């Protein structure tokens, strides 16, 4: 995915989001945990609500190939908050996704919230 931005923070957040889809990161709990805020939560495309520990467990055990992301858009909501929206495609479904990233006390960007919504009959 060739997303670029003139804003280095936005570029960093997009790169971090894409790392979360990398199987090598997903299967290494410590690597994935570095990208998740301590208060992370998700409303999954499956309808399940995930917390930080449950999503880390799922990612470590999940063997499906990563989805293909496209249509990435980023909006800076504040100095330390960035919203990403994008679409992912897998053979069995397409989902619209949003991620809220935040930075605390000058530390690294970490994902605080994620939501996936299945896009019915997407082409």
UniProtKB/TrEMBL annotation:
**Top-down, what is the taxonomic lineage of the species of origin?**
Bacteria, Bacillati, Actinomycetota, Actinomycetes, Pseudonocardiales
Output the Pfam families linked to this UniProt entry.
DUF4440
Cited SUPFAM superfamilies: NTF2-like (SSF54427)
> Please, which domain of life does this record's source organism belong to?
Bacteria
Matching InterPro entries = DUF4440 (IPR027843), NTF2-like_dom_sf (IPR032710)
Q: What is the recorded name of this protein?
A: DUF4440 domain-containing protein
| Residue span, DUF4440 domain | 14-111
